[in-house]
Amino acid sequence: MKHHFHILLCALIISGCQKAGESELTRQGLVYCSEGSPVTFNPQLDISGTTADATSHQLYNRLIDFDPQTGKLVPSLASSWSVSRDGLTYAFQLRKHVNFHQTPYFRPSRSFDAKDVLFSINRWRDPNHPYHDVSGGRYPYFESLGLQEIIKDVSLVNGFRVEIKLNYPDSSFLATLATDFAVILSQEYASQLMSENTPELLDTRPIGTGPFKFDAYRKDAYIRYRRHDGYWEGNQSQQQLIYDITPRSSLRLAKLITGECDVIAYPAQTELQVIEERPDLVLEERPGLNVGFWAFNTAKPPFDDARVRRALALAVDRKTLLDAVYFDTAVAARGLLPPSSWAFDENLQESSYNPVQAKKLLQEAGIDSGFSMTIWAMPIERAYNPNATKMAELIQHYLAEVGIQVRIVSHEWSTFRRLLLQGQHDSVLIGWSADNGDPDNFYRPLLSCSAISSGSNRANWCSAEYDQLINQAVRTADESVRMRYYQKANQILADQVPLVPIAHAYRFQAHRKGLTGMQINPFGGISFANVSKETD
Question: Domain Solute-binding protein family: where (predicted)?
């Protein structure tokens, strides 16, 4: 396999990786070879990692952030915060002298203040807000957590102090405000666009407070950002940041080797040894807070029958999937949570491979002669599933042995996600990278009832008992009490099998030697703030 990969790589390098007219573009500044185009330039509107990678930490800031090394909460646009004893009131003191981007299409007359925080939060939480329905009116991450019901009020205390009141305590609330989706927008820019009758440009021609500002975009080709001079944390060393959109993993590596890219997204497992052996490249790794899984669309028969779902889980040897798709870059999943989570349940057992029992369950469900189904395989590479098509082919083989015929379906990424949201799939191979370190970030977005309409509950599964348990878990700060609720939730998942957890993968990042300041965030996402590049 390695020999064939070298031949392909050499062919790509010899043939030349750059498209005509783009060589000068990719020679300047810092160049990141990404795997796809963002759906939007406002991460409030989309839950995909591709959109978050392209926008959240480059264009914007949040009230608070995560330290990428420790995972602890640290100040950002809020210089400090406090929480009332009853856990219902959060007060944020805002940072002064923070500038918004100045561009040919917007020249701010003031710096960041409390009005921007109120605008940014109320846009997604208040259905009567003038910007709520702009760009579709869907805010999938916040909807999946039910935050519209959790937040009671957001108020301006003074120009640099904001209070958020909750209807009931939520121990994950601060962590939610530090996620890639909780970005702060410019209220002044939004008002300008509304007066010009072009409010949709807020999400496609962005303005933020982040280290880089928007300059140009060509779908499926590149994004160009310019340095934000006057950035509150200090100017970046690079004049510009280029996203060279390169869906093919082997081509991204070829561009890294030739120097056309400084950093690449999601190197494939077959490429890791090649990267490690080159003295001009650096490979970094870190355990990821993620889970790759196979979800069943429980809104469709026969997947609405838990016996059928259990049969499908038993019919597949997950160890083979792990070995053939992840090699040595992941650990087997026993549940939603990776072993690094404080709420990981050591008593959880992996479902064994048992095709005989699978056939019995199918017979109990009234399926004696098998049936046909689809497995949707996502078309892009992610750490939690680096090759969904290969995994689907392996599952196809196993299911044939119990009389189930499988058709594998894939589409271009934006089409794939749109059709998934419409519920057209029978089952799907996909996954989740945590946006923060709280276990709630797995349980609610992936399988709560509210996450169905947001699109992050790929199983379209809803259990009132499960929802009650995970909601009770976040209403206390006592981790031992929360753990007991999550253990009960795990028992429901093991019995009902809305999805089959497969793997928790390591995160890898490859870049050229001479870059400093690159850090792997355990929660996914990438930031180029404070990254420096040696020049010849």
Answer: 72-452
